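Bug report (template v2)

What were you trying to do?
Predict the complex of my protein with coenzyme A.

What happened?
Run completed; filing so the output is reviewed.

Input:
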Amino acid sequence: MDLVDIFPAYGVRIECGPLTLRALRESDVPRICELVADGIHAEGERPFLLTWNLGDNQPLGSLQHYYAQWAGFSADSWSLMLVVERDGVIVGVQDVMAKDFPIVRCAETGSWLGLSSQGRGTGTLMRQAVLAFAFDHLGAVEMRSAAWADNPRSHRVSEKCGYVDNGYRLGVREGVCVREDQFLVTPERFVRPPYELVVSGLEPFLAAIGVAGS
Ligand SMILES: CC(C)(COP(=O)(O)OP(=O)(O)OC[C@H]1O[C@@H](n2cnc3c(N)ncnc32)[C@H](O)[C@@H]1OP(=O)(O)O)[C@@H](O)C(=O)NCCC(=O)NCCS
């Protein structure tokens, strides 16, 4: 038996042109933590809900977060964490999270890239890749994303992928009230990636999230 037989999410792999999105493994965490340490955003910017990447508890905090996501995986509530490689080099992470997916067929995404890998279309392509995976392979009918109002790159990526506004909520960031804009995209509005996806490890993952054979 291999680990992937016990934890099917480890087998998910999505190829999309120059990008490969593959399940994050424990052995990837050191490289991911190096990218975090090298910087994900300019000084003063705060793109994340929590300022996890700037905390004193890094890199241990990242490892603990990943263990918590793996440990908490269930069909009712899961998080698929994908390492993003561009031309074979790890550049960031793309997540998909869902609750009650077999019933609601809706999931949310989150992502980041190392600063030196930003601004050349990778953020858009990895979002398109994961949306195509969700719509075409998982059977999602709606996908959601959210970003602080002062995160124009994330807003622009959402716009380029075809999302529409879905309201906002007021959140607290470092003790200050900030607007978090919400977006959603459906298969009809989705702006597809310019490459066909090559997906592997799908069937066991579908069984793990309770949508096998549907
Ligand atoms: C968000 C993120 C994943 C996007 O990745 P990326 O590779 O830089 O994105 P792309 O190059 O595909 O697209 C970025 C778009 O934003 C635009 N953009 C960049 N800076 C901008 C600014 N200050 N104002 C408006 N648009 C801006 C770019 O011009 C580009 O749009 P275009 O293709 O129409 O020119 C990446 O910037 C990142 O990791 N940021 C930090 C973490 C983060 O914000 N994560 C999301 C949390 S919600």
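What did the reviewer find?
The chain has a mean pLDDT of 97. The radius of gyration is 16 Å.
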